[in-house]
Amino acid sequence: MQVDTSSLDLIDRHPETVYVLHERKERKLPMHQHIKGQLTYVEGGIAYIHLEAKTYVIPARHYIWLPGGVVHRLEVRFAATAIRNIYFSMHKDDQAPFYNKTGIYPINRLLHEMIIYTGDFDAEPARDTAEYQFLITLKNMLPRVSQIALPFIVPTTTNTRMRPVIDYITNHIAQPITLTSVAEHFNMSDRSLSRLFQAELSISFLQYLKQRRIIKGTEMMLHTGSNLTEIAYETGYQSLSAFSATFQQVMNMRPSEFLASL
After folding, report:
1. I need a labelling partner for 182 at 20 to 30 A (CA). Which of 34, 88, 99, 219 fits?
2. What torsion do the CA atoms of 100, 101, 104, 106 make, to the nearest 10 degrees?
3. Which domains does the chain possess?
């Protein structure tokens, strides 16, 4: 996995400008922050943005908006993943609530074409150029076309009691695990484990398990040749209909609709 920090200093070198960075490679950056707001669009594959207490999972044809000052790190695990980053000055961003909140959003055809079009731009277009004006127009569109954020967020923790539980769930995601079975594995009561999830992750056991399974299913849709029935069983569901119902509940679309959007 490549660790490349060469571009980080360049992004905020001129806080009033827009910086464009497109790449396709496996990458794992250290924790850092920008003065500028960050749009990261995943054109193909899947990417992960880690914050101090949660991880955002960004599937293909979606983007994440990060306000300036948010400490994070980007992780790309698959070389086929194409990432398009645009970093914007935060000037006047307080005039629209959208720019001050981290969120993952699906992309429409117009926004997709606009982002792809920036692939030939200079890294830092001068403010008196058409390229710069195009980028500002793109930014101004975001609150209008991105009104519903997707819940592709997994809470994380460094708690020594919680970490083994999270690892166990991740490694046994295909099995019919329950609150009781996990509690018994760690010699805990159901109530103690339930309280631990609420205290450390601010989420219930069932909510966490549901999110992990849907994210795993999404990863499989993007990076394996498995059909939806196989994915359903590999993520712990006893039927495709059960997987589809949960997927729609989390993503507001059925798995087949998600695949068709890629």
Report:
1. 219
2. -50
3. 8-145 (2.60.120.280), 157-261 (1.10.10.60)
Write down the pTM of the prediction. Answer: 0.80
Q: What phi, psi does 156 have (nearest 5°)?
A: -125, 165
- The alpha carbon torsion through 138, 141, 145, 147 (nearest 10 deg) reads 120
- Which of the four pLDDT bands, split at 50, 70 and 90, describes residue 1? very low
The per-residue pLDDT for range 173-216, each reduced to its tens digit, is 999 999 999 999 999 999 999 999 999 999 999 999 999 999 89
